[in-house]
């Protein structure tokens, strides 16, 4: 199973087009995926690199300057892999605990990694929207990837844009996703993000994948 999130930039139509290109390329490459001859990591990197090239090419036929972030996640027997570029995030929770979170390819993310600001300062930094890497720019996209194995019941994965994560701590996200079914958790987080933004928030995009115990199936009755 694959989940993909893209947050477009570059004007209303340009950003939407850039994000759509990420989804189209992910669908095409996933349908053509041949695990006997291609690694999952190669698949994910190929999706991001090829979407980046397509978005760059559209700049020649569009008056917009389209860019996009990308988070690509694939679940497979025994494990999961993911890759991202930009400041859209990937979270891995086990229960309500945060096991891992992707690093933002942004100016503020770099300042955080260097210890020059803290998490609270990052949320209010005047240049928090400045990206250092994204799809569609002149530079080749920076792609960070990771994975986990084995998987267990209680593992949850969140892909989300900055319009969501900017209003929550990791602990808050983990608690909501752990205690609610995926659809209800998404609805709760969207409603709360809108409330906390006071009507001035960014677009909100998210995908939640939860691993739960499969319901027991009744044995067929014997006559």
Describe what you observe in this structure.
The model has no long low-confidence stretch (mean pLDDT 90). Strand 4 (70-76) and strand 5 form a beta hairpin. This protein is an alpha+beta fold. Strands 1-4-5-8 form a 4-stranded antiparallel beta sheet, with helices on one face. The protein has 7 helices and 10 strands. The chain has a single domain (2-210), classed as Phosphatase 2c, domain 1. Helix 1 (12-31) runs antiparallel to helix 2 (40-58) and helix 6 packs antiparallel against helix 7. It is globular. This is Serine/threonine protein phosphatase PrpC. It comes from Azoarcus indigens. InterPro entries: PPM-type-like_dom_sf (IPR036457), PPM-type_phosphatase-like_dom (IPR001932). Pfam families: PP2C_2. Residues 1-211 form the PPM-type phosphatase domain.
Summarize the structure.
This protein is of the alpha+beta class. 37% of the residues lie in helices and 22% in strands. 36% of the residues are buried.
List the helices and strands and how they pair.
Elements: E1 2-5, E2 8-9, H1 12-31, H2 40-58, E3 67-68, E4 70-76, E5 79-85, E6 89-94, E7 97-101, H3 107-113, H4 119-124, E8 144-148, E9 155-160, H5 162-165, H6 170-179, H7 182-197, E10 206-210
Antiparallel strand pairs: 1-4, 2-3, 4-5, 5-8, 6-7, 6-9, 9-10
Helix pairs in contact: 1-2, 6-7
């Amino acid at each position: 199973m694959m989940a993909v999130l893209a947050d477009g930039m570059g004007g209303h139509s340009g950003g939407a087009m850039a994000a759509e290109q990420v989804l189209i390329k992910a669908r095409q490459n996933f349908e053509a995926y041949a695990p006997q001859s291609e690694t999952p990591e190669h698949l994910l990197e190929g999706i991001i690199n090829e979407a980046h090239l397509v978005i760059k090419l559209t700049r020649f036929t569009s008056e917009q300057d389209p860019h996009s972030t990308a988070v690509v996640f694939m679940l497979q027997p025994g494990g999961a892999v993911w890759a991202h570029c930009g400041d859209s995030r990937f979270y891995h929770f086990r229960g309500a605990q945060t096991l891992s979170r992707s690093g933002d390819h942004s100016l503020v993310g770099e300042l955080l990694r260097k210890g020059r600001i803290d998490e609270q300062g990052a949320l209010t930094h005047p240049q928090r929207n400045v990206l250092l890497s994204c799809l569609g720019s002149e530079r080749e996209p920076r792609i960070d990837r990771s994975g986990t194995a084995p998987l267990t019941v209680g593992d949850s994965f969140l892909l989300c844009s900055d319009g969501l994560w900017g209003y929550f701590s990791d602990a808050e996200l983990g608690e909501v996703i752990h205690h609610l079914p995926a659809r209800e958790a998404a609805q709760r987080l969207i409603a709360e993000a809108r409330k906390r933004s006071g009507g001035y928030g960014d677009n909100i995009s998210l995908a939640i994948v939860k691993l739960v115990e499969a319901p027991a199936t009744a044995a067929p009755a014997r006559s």
